[in-house]
Amino acid sequence: LLYILATQGIFDVRAALARSVGYVAVVVVVLVVYAAVIFGLGGMVFGESQPSVPQQLFYLGSALALLLSVGPLRVLLDKLTYRFFYHRDYNFNEVLQQFSTVTANEIELNRVINKSLAVLVEALAPSYVSLYIMSPHGRTHHYVRNLKGNHTPRRYKQQLDIVKDILAELPRTTRVSDITAFETRQVAEDSGAQVIVQLMVKGEHVGVLFFGERQNGLPYSEQDTQLLSTTADELA
What we know:
Blueprint: H1 2-7, H2 13-46, H3 53-85, H4 92-105, H5 109-124, E1 128-134, E2 140-146, H6 153-163, E3 173-175, H7 182-190, E4 195-201, E5 204-211, H8 222-235
Antiparallel strand pairs: 1-2, 1-5, 3-4, 4-5
Helix pairs in contact: 2-3, 4-5, 4-8
């Protein structure tokens, strides 16, 4: 089952490994470094066998500091581990060839979408990618690949509503950081995406793609946006 999930692009093995290494690193740092600093420093300062009131307050404050710092520490270690697992560059032409193979050989919508997104996820390693397809009958179909698990379904459902009024102001492929109009950029940032890609056929919207931050912490490059523009035209 795990083999099937991995080969079909449903389960990202490297993302799972990166998360596992990150969590293990957090536990090791908390248990070893924090314990050594807190109890070692406490022993040197107080040097008493029976904890006094100041010593108890010191340990209580240290525990509170530990609690508040676990979140930022996990984010930092996540970025380091994801940068290690996703450090390699992709071959632009090879990715385009893989993408074209999918769109040429698959005719069932769900398989086209899932395999196409799997190719882009493998190349760019976003924290998530969210795709909305607007049908002629007024329905909206939603596909999502959430690799880091830090975005909620409610946030995804809000994305299209958040940006639909500004889509006409944006290029077909937009890095949110490149948007110069302040209010437009604020709206785009509220969607939680770093890149927004519009799927258009004969001037009409057929879908919108949202890409979260890259898992290695690096910004999206010009090559990345060129890749997304080319594949979006083919997917549309």
